[in-house]
Amino acid sequence: MTDTLQHARVLSPRRNTSEASSVAELVSEQLRHFGIDENSDYGQALSRTASHLYDAQSDVMSLWDITNKTLGTLGKEDRMAYFNAKKFLSFQMAKVLDTLQNPFRKTYQSLSSGNGAQGHYPLFDNVTALFSATPVVVRTATYIYACTEWVDDAFQGKEATHQIYSRLLNPTNISLANAIVDLEAGPYAGDYLAWNFNSGMAAIDGVLSNVLTHGDVLIVSRNVYGGVYQLLHDYFARENRLNIQIAWFDGYTKEEFSRFLADTRQQNQGRLDKGASLHVYLESPCNPHGYVLDVPGITVEAHAVGALVMLDSTLATPVLHQPLQHPDKMARPDYVMHSYTKDICGSGATTAGVVIGETYRMFQPKGSSMNGVEWSQTLFWDVYYIKGAFLDSEKAFDVLNGMKTLEQRLMSKVINTLIFTEFLNAHPQIRVNSHAVAKHENASLREQLHNNGWPCPLFTVDMAPAQLSKAVFTSFFDSLEPAFSHQVSIGQTNTIILCPALTSHSELSTEEQKKAGIELTTMRIAMGTDNVKQLMAQFILAARHFIEPAAPGFCAAFLAPAEIDDIYRRVCMQVCEQYHGGVASMTEVLQE
C-alpha cells in the first residue's frame, strides 16, 4: 500500500477493514457504508467532496513530512512564512466545515417531529470556536463519535483527536498540558507529554502509583510537603499497603547523595536481591525552607544505578528552574510534577496538578512497546485512565490564564524576597533560613541552578535568639494581619505566613519536625507581589507592640528607614537588570 493511500485510508469509516486499493475505491466504499447511491445527484456531490478530503489528508501528511525535514534548515523569516501559510490553511478548513453546517442542520431538522423534542445537535456550531483567541472551555462529559471503527481505535489509544469521555481527555485540559510541556521542556518539548490532575497531591499520588511496586525502596529528600510525607508514611510505606522502604535523604549536593545512595543500597540489599527496585523522589526547592537540591547531579547518580527520579518542582516553576532542559539527558529527572494551585495559576482560586514525563513513559497505544516500557506500564493506562483524577476544563482554563503573567509575578516575588530577607537578616535576634541570604549554606546551589541565580520566594524565619515566650510570640504572630495573610497555601499574589508545625507539616511527629528544621515557633513566609515596604512596616509595628515590652531593645536593632529604602532601590535595579539584561539582542532575535 502506498503512503498516499495509507494516509488517505485514515479518513475512511472502514479504516481497519477496507479493501480499497485507490482513493476512488475508498470514496465508493464510504458511500456504500452509509447507504448512499453514488449515481444520484447527492451521491455524486458527496463523492467529489470525499475525494477532495482524502486527497487533502495525503497532502497535509506531505506538508508534515516536508516540515520535519526542512524546519531545522530554514531561517526565521521563512519559518514565519510557513507558519502563517499553515495558519490560513486551518482557517480555510474551518470555513469548509462551517459552510457544511447549513445543509447538515437542514437535514437534521427534517428528521424531527416538529415539536422540538429531538433537541439541538451542536456538532457544527462548535466549529467557530476554532477562531477563539484563548483556549475554549469545553464543558462536556462525553463526545460524539464518527463510526464504529474510529471509536474502536479511540479506545485502543490510536485516535488521539477522537475524544470519548472528559475523565480521560478534554480539549481545554490538553491545551494546558501542551502549554506546560512547552514551558518546561522548551527545545525538547517534542519528547515530553503531560497529564493534568485535579490537585498537586493527585498528581504526586499518580506518579508514585505508576512507578512503585510492592516492596520497593524509595529515597526521599527530607524537606517535602507535609501532605507528601503523610502519603508516603501512612500509605505507601505501610506493610499492608505497598510496604515501601523509605530512606530519608538529609543532604543537598551530588556528593552527599552519592554516599547516601551507596549506604541505602547496602542497607536494603536483601530487598533489592529479591527483585525490589530503587527510585528517588525529590522536592526542589523544598517546603518549608525553600532549599535547592543539586537536581542534575543527583539525577545522574540515580540513573547510573537504574533508578527513576521524580521531582516536585512546584516552588521553582519553569521561571526559576527548567530541569528538563538540561543538555545532558542523564541529568534530567524522569518525571517533573507541579502543583498548579501555587504560582503557575497564581490566583489561589483553583486546585490542580500535573506530571510531565517522556512520551513513551506517559502514553503508548495499546499493544505498543518502547525503550523497554510496555503500553500497559505507561502513566495513562496504568493510573490515569482508571483513577479518575482528571482536571476539569474550568480549572484548566484558570491555570492557562495564570500562566500568562507567571514570569512577571515571579520577578516581583524575587524582588520582595531579596529585600525582605536582607531586612530581617540584619537583625541579630532573627534567624533567616533562606538561600536568598548571600552567606547561607544553600546559596551556592541556588546561584548554580536557578535562572539569574534568583531565590525561591519561600523561606522560614524564627526568633529563637530572642528567647520569647510562646504567649508573646503568638500575640506577635497573630497581629501580622492584614499585611501578611494567615493562610495555609502558597504561591498567590498576597504574602502568606504560617507556623508549619501547626499546619502544613503537622502530619510529622515532633521528632520528624526537628529533623526537618521545624520548631514550634518557626514561621514559613511565602512572598507575594504586594508592597514589601508595607510588609516590613507591619512587622516592625507588631514587634513594637508585642515583643518590645517583653524584650527591651529588640526593635532598636531593626534597620533605619533610610537604610531600608536604599536596599529597596538597589534590589529592584539589580533584579530588573538581570531580567532585562538576559533578553537576547535584536540581532539574535532576528536570526534565531
From TrEMBL:
Keywords in alphabetical order: Pyridoxal phosphate
InterPro entries noted in UniProt: Cys/Met-Metab_PyrdxlP-dep_enz, PyrdxlP-dep_Trfase, PyrdxlP-dep_Trfase_major, PyrdxlP-dep_Trfase_small
Query: What's one Pfam family here?
Result: Cys_Met_Meta_PP
So which domain of life are we looking at? Bacteria
| Residue segments, region Disordered | 1-22
- Respond yes or no to whether keyword Cytoplasm is given for this record: no
Q: What is this protein called?
A: Cys/Met metabolism pyridoxal-phosphate-dependent enzyme
